[in-house]
Amino acid sequence: MEKNSVIIYALISLAIAGSYALHFTGNKNKKEVVRTEFVAGGATDISAGVIVSIDIDSIIFNFDMFKDRRGELLEKQRRAEADFTTRTNRLERDVREFQEQVNRVLITRAVQEQRAQILAQQEQDLINYGNQLQADLMEEEQVMNRQIIDYIMKFLEERKSEYNYSYVLGKSFGGMILYSEPMLDITAEILDGLNRKYRTEVRR
User: Fold this and answer.
1) What would the pLDDT profile of 45-79 be if each residue is shown by its tens digit?
2) Burial 8-22 (b: 16+ CB within 10 A, else e)
3) Are 197 and 61 in contact (CB under 8 A)?
4) Burial, 181: exposed, middle or buried (Cβ in 10 Å; 0-12, 13-18, 19+)?
5) Alpha carbon of 165 to those of 33, 34, 192, 201: distances in Å?
6) Bridge partners of 35?
7) CB–CB of 102/111 below 8 Å?
8) Cβ atoms of residues 4 and 136 within 8 Å
9) pLDDT tens for residues 148-184?
10) Residue 186 and residue 57: Cα distance in Å, rounded?
11) DSSP 137-156
């Protein structure tokens, strides 16, 4: 099993997720966007404007929920790889013992054929087991990524009246949004709100 497959797949998934644009209700005809500074507590007033942006890569990689879930997934991957390695070593040992018995003519030809078939089946079972482990980990990772994105989207929808936006543009390196005005970026405020909300829920 390729040890870094989960991390690599996560990075690809997150890059794709970065291109999401989240649409909320508002006046679609407003074009002028003027953002004032955030006041204490996270509230803001965006005069004559309904568009803000967040750096989705920064949000996800610094989101405590992502850190927790990624840690759990990597630990599960570590245990799966350790189990797979143990099974592989056991099979290799059995094959060596069988070859030694054959070379020293310690078993009959009939037993040789029987043992060879058993070892071949064990090898195929091990291959299938490894493939299933990898498939299960990838599926869990996909679900994890979707759960995190869903959590962020719901948070943004819950806070739309507080921040007064109608569109939240998700920036990501190499994504569809190549530039947005820094004064419209609310990444820090959203990340802080996400982590506070998540940690409150975890402590319950």
Assistant:
1) 444 458 999 999 999 999 999 999 999 999 999 99
2) eebeebbeebbebeb
3) no
4) exposed
5) 10, 11, 18, 25
6) 46
7) no
8) no
9) 999 999 999 999 888 888 899 999 988 888 888 888 9
10) 13
11) HHHHHHHHHHHHHHHHHHHH
Distance in angstroms (rounded) separating the CA atoms of residues 52 and 163:
9
Instruction: Provide the 8-state DSSP code for 36.
Output: P
Rounded-to-integer distance, Cα 43 and Cα 195, Å: 17
Residue type, 121: Q
Q: Which amino acid is at 57?
A: D
Rounded CA-CA distance 165/43 in Å is 12
Q: What secondary structure letter does DSSP report for 185? A: B
Describe the crossing of helices 5-17 and 109-158 by its angle, rounded to 10 degrees.
30
User: pLDDT tens, 181-199?
Assistant: 888 999 999 999 999 999 9
Element spanning 174, H or E? none
The two structure tokens encoding residue 153: 């989207």
Are 87 and 129 in contact, with CB atoms under 8 Å apart? yes
Sequence letter at residue 55 = D
